[in-house]
Design a protein that fits this description.
Blueprint lengths: L5 H9 L51 E4 L2 E4 L2 E7 L8 E6 L9 E4 L5 E6 L4 E11 L8 E10 L4 E6 L1 E8 L12 E5 L11 E7 L9 E15 L7 E6 L23 E4 L6 E6 L1 H9 L7 E5 L10 E5 L9 E7 L4 E15 L2 E14 L2 E6 L4 E12 L3 E10 L1
Parallel strand pairs: 2-8
Antiparallel strand pairs: 1-3, 3-6, 4-5, 4-7, 7-8, 9-19, 10-12, 11-18, 12-17, 13-16, 13-18, 13-19, 14-15, 14-17, 20-21, 20-24, 21-22, 21-23, 23-24
């Protein structure tokens, strides 16, 4: 007679369980006379003694990594991707990434099996690329390639600058510890206030940046706040919308508490939805706030991040990001500014490759007449010249045609 004890033996070998053997029992109810009895030879018999047969599988390579990240973007802009592979023997693994444009990262590791890692890359040219990644375990067994196809259909124009800023202050404040400061914590945690026993469980995040180096009046194409989502508390928070509010009074990360928290706007600027897996960047579109900060119409005290989706049960979901006190995946603010000047012009003709970047519209000329008033110039563009249009827009722009008076520039 045979019993499959593979699971137990694997646990014994891995040290998950202590090996005290097994107890064999007949638990099928009988309830009558002449109860069946099963008899087996023991090790004292000599022949047909019990034995345990174990087939040991040779060392196996790790699986092909899963790759996640943006699949379409712009050449010249940084994008983040996550990679994860599982080793059948639970060995530590290293990763090698081929970005498909001739650049190959060296082996990076070791990392634990099934640990999500993040890497960034900038494609310098337009085109279609295949990201390939493979994993190698500590015994030099190399697994198959995992792949992800990406396209970079547009150029990131050099006259639109991307600026990045790291936080000057980031912290969470905790309703259940209303007088305690957590300014030295290596993470920021956000959680809804309502648990099974009522309110009092909220964790809110505060963050701000010094962007005073950007000249007043600079036109903003877009601004994005990015925090690296690395873990969660209790219940996975996937799908929860986390609101971001503009803070309206001063605060400091080394002294702020729940009871001394700053005031903030009555309506959120925007929200970000928690993704279905950890190990990725979460983003909030803060373009309007940054434009207000730079124009001077609002004072820059940063933002408050909250989870206002009512929970009301046990194990409240908590979203965790690394803070500036932690590692290289610290929060950052990415701001794209427009440094070329827009001039009032009359445009008339055929266009293609229509795209938008914040409040700007960008397209390529097919046969476009371009009359600029100051300084005066008149041109007909027929060779795919790239045009940017801002506010005001006193006309119409479709995917194939532009007509009207616009603030515009040739890129």
């Amino acid at each position: 007679m045979e019993w499959d004890v593979t699971g137990d033996v694997q646990d014994f070998v891995n040290g998950v369980e202590t090996n005290y053997g097994w107890q064999i029992m007949d638990e099928t109810y009988w309830g009558g006379p002449d109860i069946p009895l099963s008899a087996f030879y023991s090790k004292e018999y000599g022949n047909y003694i019990p034995y345990l047969e174990i087939e040991i599988i040779g060392n196996q390579p790790p699986g092909a990594p899963d790759i996640n990240g943006q699949t379409s973007g712009k050449a010249g802009q940084k994008y983040w991707y996550t990679f994860v592979s599982v080793d059948p023997d639970d060995d530590n693994i290293s990763y090698q990434v081929d970005w498909g444009d001739g650049s190959v990262d060296p082996w990076d590791g070791p990392h634990e099996s099934n640990e999500i890692i993040s890497k960034d890359h900038i494609w310098s040219e337009q085109g279609e690329f295949t990201i390939k990644a493979r994993a190698k375990e500590i015994n030099e067994e190399i697994g198959e390639w995992g792949t992800l196809d990406v396209t970079m259909p547009m150029n990131q124009n050099l006259n639109r600058d991307i600026l990045t800023f790291n936080p000057t202050d980031d912290v969470d404040i905790r309703h259940e510890d209303p007088n305690q400061n957590f300014g030295t914590s290596e993470d920021i945690v956000v959680r809804n206030d309502y648990g099974m026993t009522g309110s009092g469980f909220a964790l809110d995040g505060l963050i701000r940046f010094d962007i005073s180096s950007i000249p007043q009046g600079t036109s903003i194409v877009y601004a994005t706040l990015k925090l690296f989502y690395y873990a969660y508390l209790d219940t996975p928070p996937a799908g929860r919308d986390l609101n971001l509010y503009r803070i309206t009074s001063d605060w400091d990360e080394m002294s702020v508490t729940w009871n001394t928290q700053p005031t903030y706007a009555s309506q959120p600027t925007t929200f970000s939805t928690v993704p279905p897996f950890t190990g990725v960047w979460m983003e909030w579109d803060v373009t309007s706030d940054i434009q207000d900060f730079i124009s001077g119409s609002e004072v820059d005290y940063g933002w408050k991040i909250t989870d206002e989706d009512y929970w009301g049960g046990p194990d409240i979901p908590g979203t965790r990001w690394w803070s500036k006190e932690s590692r290289d995946t610290i929060p950052y603010l990415e701001i794209k500014t427009k440094t070329n000047d827009l001039n009032f012009a009359f445009l008339f003709g055929r266009i293609e490759n229509l795209n938008t970047e914040g409040n700007l519209t960008i397209f390529d000329a097919v046969k476009l007449r371009y009359l600029q008033f100051s300084p005066f110039s008149f041109n007909t563009y027929v060779s795919g010249e790239e045009i940017v249009v801002g506010e005001p827009k006193l006309g119409i722009i479709t995917t194939s045609f532009a007509f009207g008076f616009f603030s515009a520039a040739l890129l």
